[in-house]
Amino acid sequence: MKKRDDYVETLKAQLDRWNADIAKWEAKAEGAQAEALKEYDKHLDAVRRQRDLSIKQLQQVQSATGDAWKDLARGADDAWAKMRESFEKARSHFQK
Questions:
Q1: 3-state secondary structure at position 37
Q2: Count of structural domains within the chain
Q3: Assign residue 66 a region: left if phi > 0, alpha if psi is -120 to 50, beta otherwise?
């Protein structure tokens, strides 16, 4: 059970870091001109969608019983890898 708890805590910590960056980007988008705002919104929407999928995977791992969490962790790892990819694309855009 400890390994699942460690895994969940690792995912939660990463999610907290992503949420902090998303909040910064949302603030930056609020001050953008109309055309730039469309571009910011597009990137933010993609990151938010992937974040929501990642949260679902985290919740499934948390609620799994016995060793079932290990199977769910593989799906969560895939979702989190996609989140990292989406996040890095957004990060490169927002740091311009």
A1: helix
A2: 1
A3: left
